[in-house]
Every structure is written in C-alpha cells, then in structure tokens.
Amino acid sequence: QSTDEAMPSTIPEADVYLDGTRATVDIDCTSLLAENDSLSVSLATDGTTIRLMRDTDVRPSRLMTLPYKMEKIIDWNLNGTVLEVIFSRTDEDDGIPIQ
User: Fold this and answer.
1) Which residues partner with 22 through β-bridges?
2) Are 37 and 56 in contact (CB under 8 A)?
C-alpha cells in the first residue's frame, strides 16, 4: 500500500533534534515495515520532505514533511522498526541559525 504523494504526513518539530549543522529525526516505522522488508530513504521537495520507500513498492510508501529545511542526508539506520535519519541542515527560511 503506497501513500499518495500529495498527502505527506508531518514530522512534529519536537521529533527533530538540532545540533549545530546537523539534525536528527527518529521515525517509528512499525506500520510501514513487515519482517525482512528493505527500506530506502531520500530527501525530496527541495529539502523539506523525507521519502521512505520499501524496495518492493513502485511509489513511495510514506512521505513526511520536515519542520525545517534540510540540505542532505548524511546517514540513516534502521534499528528494528525505528528509523534514525541524520541530516546536514541549512538555516535558510527556518529562523534557527546554525551555530
């Protein structure tokens, strides 16, 4: 079951941890992944949306809007059903300066 690209869910600001030039987001993927599923993660929509895609799907399984604009994904890992994504971030338009 794939998500309509026009309807991304929102990642709450409280789930984004800012640390200088980096940001970390933890996402619960319990409802998205079955046992042995593979996942790919990408940044879309000019750094404002995460695209999660199971390797078995043709379209994104889940789109999630970030509360801040990110520059790129540095790393990500899946620990069970919890996805941790580390971004380099930009202070463009988010009002929180990089220190």
Assistant:
1) 19, 88
2) yes
Q: Angle at the Cα of 71 (from 37 to 38), degrees rounded to 5?
A: 5
Residues 54-73 pLDDT 10s:
877 878 788 999 988 899 99
Q: Which two tokens stand for residue 84?
A: 């941790």
pTM for the complete prediction? 0.79
Tell the burial category of 83 from Cβ atoms under 10 Å away from its Cβ (0-12, 13-18, 19+).
buried
Tell which residue, 23, 30, 5, 37, has the closest CA to residue 67: 23
SS3 category, 13: helix
